[in-house]
């Protein structure tokens, strides 16, 4: 179990120059020091297992659970919003302990993300914990899309304006960043993300093949391995109708002897009989119908906009000159952007909305899962800018919450 906060402070050997970068996603957290080459990607979750009722597994401790059948997940986030601070605090204790980062918060700066539209009460608790409980030397709090825009600006110094499409586990946020500042009137939240896709896939498999309603973790793994975004729905539906469709994939459930995770068979083994230890499911049309929810929420009865519509709607809220910059600098971040075909489909659907003489360009800055974290690293390395943006513990102790106004990137800040 993680140590208490006093133990965390005593057990560390980090220097005052360290900056902890923490991108808190609703499914995974990306964390590390600015001096690290890459972040750790760990579950932002606490697990209970049916096989070990007396113990809870915090984040990566799940690897110590021998039988992960019928896991119960406790997420601090709900629908893309941090709602249960007590759970997040336990996870943060673990992240800062010697089992993971092994840092002394008192000697560190912190760059940490929060959802675009979080409850004011949670924001207050979050800020208080940063300065009063963990006692970081200084901190900067912002949405992950802002950090992604910082990485874009670092790599494209002549392009100060971009549109960040942050499609994660619980929701998708469309965030225009104009001249380095979030234009809040253009931010749109689409309540569709990886969780909805996983749940839909579970329902389809349970209805058509075998019951997997209690195997969220496994179906999420299979979704990540097998699903893709169609760039030609009519053609893919025709292919899916063939008895031996080239789109069909066989996926296996873990037996916790030969396989400990969900897996996908090699393409050439798709139609071979299962081995004695294998329990297989076959996916064809569901491989692209489930993630199609991102672009057509009406599949699950939601009448709100899909991702491409939201992108176009957000951009139309600006002058034509600004629109041209936004259309040509659409930056993808978040786990759902890893679906094969996502970039091409978004460009395909947004293209007709571009004003005359404009162009649409959709960009990945490396791995969309860690784009925000690397944006935090770029921010930390821009020492002069970071000095202006951060709030020190001394400033917070003197001015309280008002010290954060105008610095932390929040809807009520300019």
Helices, strands, pairings?
Layout: H1 5-10, E1 19-24, E2 28-33, E3 40-43, E4 46-49, E5 52-58, E6 71-74, E7 77-78, E8 81-82, H2 85-96, E9 109-113, H3 120-133, E10 138-142, H4 144-155, E11 162-167, E12 172-178, E13 181-182, E14 188-190, H5 194-208, H6 216-226, H7 233-240, E15 249-252, E16 263-264, E17 280-283, H8 286-289, H9 307-315, H10 320-328, E18 330-333, H11 342-350, E19 362-364, H12 371-381, H13 383-389, E20 391-392, H14 393-399
Parallel strand pairs: 1-9, 9-10, 11-18, 18-19
Antiparallel strand pairs: 1-2, 2-3, 4-5, 4-6, 7-8, 10-20, 11-12, 12-13, 12-14, 15-16, 15-17
Question: How would you characterize this protein structure?
Answer:
The protein has a six-stranded mixed beta sheet with strand order 3-2-1-9-10-20, with helices on both faces. It has helices at 5-10, 85-96, 120-133, 144-155, 194-208, 216-226, 233-240, 286-289, 307-315, 320-328, 342-350, 371-381, 383-389, 393-399; strands at 19-24, 28-33, 40-43, 46-49, 52-58, 71-74, 77-78, 81-82, 109-113, 138-142, 162-167, 172-178, 181-182, 188-190, 249-252, 263-264, 280-283, 330-333, 362-364, 391-392. It is 32% helix and 20% strand. The longest helix has 15 residues, at 194-208. Mean pLDDT is 91; it is low at 6-16. The protein has three domains: 5-142 and 382-404, Nucleotidyltransferase, domain 5 (2-Layer Sandwich); 147-191 and 304-368, 2-Layer Sandwich (Nucleotidyltransferase, domain 5); 194-292, Actin, Chain A, domain 4 (Alpha-Beta Complex), CATH 3.90.640. It has 14 helices and 20 strands. The protein is globular, with a radius of gyration of 22 Å. 46% of the residues are buried.
